[in-house]
Amino acid sequence: MYLHIITLIVYGLLGLQYDASSVDSEMVTMMTAAIQENFHMNILLLLPAVAVIVMAVCKCPSIPTLMVSTLVAVVLAMLVQGQTLSGILNILDSGFSIDTALPEFNRLVNRGGLQSMLWTAALGILGMLYGSIMEKTGLLEALLSKMDPLVKSTGGLVTAVVLTCTLLLMATASQTLAIVVGGRMYIGEFKKKNLLPQTLSRTLEDSGTIISPLVPWSLCGTYMAGTLGVSTMSYLPFAMFCWLCPVLAIVYGFTGKFFWKTGEKSSQKVYQLSTLMEAS
Predict the structure, then answer these.
(1) DSSP of 93-146, one letter per residue?
(2) Element housing 188 (H / E)
C-alpha cells in the first residue's frame, strides 16, 4: 500500500513537469479520425478489459481469465467489427494487419498474434533450460553460497533473498527459476527464524517477479521492450514500482514491519516437512 502511494506521488510530480504544448494536436486528430474510419467504436468494446479486472479481483487463475477475455473479444469482433471467424483465427495466429494512408496509425495497430510471441516464449524456454543446467551442475549453489553470512538477521535474510533472486534472474533470464530456486534455498532459514511462510513468498515476489522487467534479456524485459518499442534502460528510471519494491522489502526486513512470526497472525499456511528436508 505504501509503495503504491509513493509511486502515485512520484508519477504525479513527474506529470506536473509535462508540457502538453509539445503534443502534436494535428497528429492526434488524424489518429482519432483513422480509428473512427476503420473501426466501429462502442462502449461494449470495454468488456474484455472489464472481464480481466473482475476475474483478477475475484482471484481467478490466469489461464481461465485469458480464455474468457479472449472469447469476449472474439464475440465483439464478430458482432461489432464485422469480422469473420476465419479472419479472427488468422488474427490470433499472425496478428492484426491494416494498410491506411497514415503510417503512424499502421504501426500502432499492426501487431499481435501467436507468431509474434513465439520468439519471446522460445527465449523463456531456453532461459529455463540454461538455468536448470546451472542448478544441476552445482554452479548456482557455489555462486550463491557466498550469501550465507547475510542470513543472521531478518533484514540480512531478506537482503540475501533479494540479491539471490536478482542474480538468478540475470544468470537464467527466468523469473520462475529465480523464485523456485531462491525459495528452496532460503525456506529453511525462514523456518529457523519462525517466520510465517507468507513472508518468504512475498519476498520472492518482491524480487524474483518484480525485478524481472528490469533485466533486458529476461522474458518480461524482452516482452515489454518489444511491446512498448522502448529499450529496458530507457524505461527503467520510470519503472519505480519495480525497483522500489525490493528496496522497501529490505527496509521492512530490517525494521521487522510486516514480518510475522508463528502465532502473531492467524495463518493456514504451514511449511511442508518434505520441502524442508529437501531444502536442508
Answers:
(1) HH------S-HHHHHHHS--SHHHHHHHHHHHHHHHHHHHHHHHTTHHHHHHGG
(2) helix 175-192
For residue 124, how many other CB atoms are within 10 A of its CB? 20
DSSP SS3 for 257: coil
CB-neighbour burial class of residue 96 (10 A; exposed 0-12, middle 13-18, buried 19+): middle
- Nine-digit cell string for 193: 527464524
Which of helix, strand or coil describes residue 24? coil
3-state secondary structure of 195: strand
DSSP 8-class letter at 1: -
pLDDT confidence of residue 55: 94
Closest to 216 (Cα-Cα) out of 244, 241, 235, 240:
235
The neighbour count for residue 32, using CB atoms within 10 Å, is: 11
d(CA 181, CA 165): 8
And the C-alpha cell for 109? Answer: 495497430
The three cell numbers of residue 196 are: 510465517
- Cβ-contact 198, 271 below 8 angstroms: no
Burial 193-232 (b: 16+ CB within 10 A, else e): bebbbebbebbbebbbbbbbbbbeebbbbbbbbeeeeeeb
Q: What is the pLDDT of residues 11-23, one digit of tens each?
A: 888 777 776 666 6
| 0.70 exceeded by pTM | no
